[in-house]
Structures are given as C-alpha cells and as structure tokens.
C-alpha cells in the first residue's frame, strides 16, 4: 500500500474502534456540524480508550492515493475536492465502508443529512461491525428530526463499541431529545465511569437526573394529585425556596394524607428549629419517633435541642 494511503488508515476519517480517539477532533467536528455546534466546541478531544476491533480496509494502489488525497481535502474543508476523490474511488470499484463513511461526512458537513444518511447506511451494510457510520448516522437522523431512528442506530453503536465515548455521548443527547431521561442518565453514568474527571459528563449526569426527577414528579401529580408524596415534594421545593411557612403547611398536608409517612415530622422539626421555635421543633421530633421509633435523625435533633436548652441555663 502506498505511504499516503497507509497514513490515511491511522487518521480519523476512516474512523475505526481503535482510531476513533485518534481522529476524534474530526469526528467531533462532523457531529457538531450536524448539531449546529461551534467549531471551538467541536475541537475538544475525546478521552483515550482501549483499542477494539481492527480497522476496516482502505483502498490500495492508485485508488489508495486518490482516497488519501480525499482525506486531506476533507480535513482542510475542501468538500468538493473530497467528494470528487471519494466518488472516483467508488467508481473505481473500491467503495468500501471506509470510503462511504467519509463521503457521508462530506454531505453531513454540508448539511445534506438525507444524502449523508444514505452513505452511512451503505457503510454499515458493507461493514456492520464498524461503529463510526452508526454514530454519524445517529447525528444526521437527529438533524432530520428522526429521533427514534437515531436512538436505534446509536444503541447499536454503543453495543459494538461500549467504551467509545462519542457513541454514548450521541446516544445520551438523542435520549434527551426524546425526553428519555432515564436513558440519558444511563449513558452519562457510563461516560462518567469511562472518564471520571470529565466535567461535561458529570454535568450531563446531574442535569439528566434533575429532569428525570421533574418528569417523575409531573407523572406523580397526574396519577395521584392528592397523595402524601405530592405534598411532600411540594414542601421540599418550598423549603429550598426559603418559604418556610408554606413548606410547613405542605408538610402538614402530607402528614394528614398519610400519618405513617416517615421524615415528614422530622422535616417540620428542622424548619421550626431554624426559625427558633424550639418547643415546636421538639414536638415534631417526638411525633417523628412515634411514626419511626428507630429514627436516628429525630433522636439527634432531640439531643441537639437538649444541648441548646442546657446552654441557656
């Protein structure tokens, strides 16, 4: 194989499991184009990861040189030249998955997502174990508004390359688009395990947990609007907002709806203590012990009240 074609194998554009991270800036650029991200966001490198399956084949001989020239043009942003080179390789009978994937990237970077998707699908047909076209297909399908199809392809990519951050990141975003917050949490949790120091993964995990919580509470209000848990959730929200009196009223409604529910009176006791109403705090802590005799929190609060009272003597 000519040196130029051999060099193309190690670059991003023929993205393979072992080479995705080496070519991550280019793949990120393609994905960012599909999402409308900025060039600066697209240039952030992906974390390193272990090698997986071997690289797909690339053209050899004269067509290998043409392919390598197409790669260079694509990296330089000369999309017309890149397209012409990849088309020449395909017309020459060397339209392997590696080539089809890169032609798809040309179309994707132009915003021609339907044409890009067709090339990525052909790359997948030619090499079903090649994850890069599935990742890029997912991005183009999202751009086309085909979220469910994008999720399906990206799940396949994750199955093929479970330690590939780009696959999981795109699937997390597809799940977010679909409102599948549990799915987004799953992918961001996996990403945080792959690269624990990456703040974007931690942020994505936190925001996905928050949206999942909000979604769960909305569903709870729909199925049981007068349940104790609805009042409890409302009370916690009011307490965070600093609206202590309204929080106490909501906790009281929760206790009335379910007198056996733990932590309600304890929360009320803490609010009373924060407001300086020690007698009310003691009363609610004792009520908590009636509901949950083994409550360590209630016992700790009563001990703290005893210390405060002893200090006043």
Q: Could you give the topology of this structure?
A:
Elements: H1 3-10, H2 24-35, H3 39-42, H4 61-75, H5 79-91, H6 97-109, H7 113-126, H8 131-143, H9 147-160, H10 165-178, H11 181-194, H12 199-223, H13 228-240, H14 244-257, H15 264-274, H16 278-291, H17 296-312
Helix pairs in contact: 1-4, 2-8, 4-5, 5-6, 6-7, 6-8, 7-8, 8-9, 8-10, 9-10, 10-11, 11-12, 13-14, 14-15, 15-16, 16-17
- Estimated share of beta-strand residues: under 5%
Query: Can you say what the CATH homologous superfamily of the largest domain is?
Result: Tetratricopeptide repeat domain
Uncertain runs are 1-26, 37-55
How many individual β-strands?
A: 0
Helix content: over 70%
Class inferred from helices and paired strands: mainly alpha
Q: How far apart, in Å, are the first and last alpha carbons?
A: 91 Å
* SSE pattern: HHHHHHHHHHHHHHHHH
| Outline | elongated
Number of helices: 17
Q: What's the structural domain tally? A: 2
CATH class of the largest domain equals Mainly Alpha
Rg calc: 28 Å
What is the fold named in CATH at topology level of the largest domain?
A: Serine Threonine Protein Phosphatase 5, Tetratricopeptide repeat
- Look at the structure and give the mean pLDDT: 83
Largest sheet: none
Any idea what the CATH architecture of the largest domain is? Alpha Horseshoe
